[in-house]
Amino acid sequence: MFYLEKIILITAGIASCISILxxxxxxxxxxxxxFLLTQFFSWILxxxxxxxxxxxxxxxxxxxANATSFMFEYFVLPVLTIFFILYFPYNKALRTRIAYYIAFxxxxxxxxxLLEKYTLIIEYxxxxxxxxxxxxxxxxxxxxxxxxxxxxxxxxxxx
Length: 159
Hints:
Layout: H1 3-20, H2 28-51, E1 55-56, H3 70-86, H4 94-118, E2 123-124, H5 129-150
Antiparallel strand pairs: 1-2
């Protein structure tokens, strides 16, 4: 029972661990800051969404301790946000930067939709796919804005 779901969660964890190896050592401190900041926002928002019964994680790690998905909230999303911010095209045209947001948010939402449709990793109740897309875009923007402020990068509020 739940064999597919456990394989997916383990694979996501392994892929996230391996991807961390591709973060340059010179950016390790910045990556750590992004990782922890994303966990902070993800933890709060994830708990709110689950407690309001907008969605559910039927198969998850630490099911007795937390109603959210540990792998998603505390590992996969923070690692994804690291790559989003560290490789963001800051000096490119506005349409390129917007396309970057759209690409990351759409890819994440598409994967979540597949997981919602074909597995028991996530189950939507009154949640809709576009809420995932919007929340991912806002999370990326918020973390990037705080990152730019903390590291004194110009154009704090620019996309």
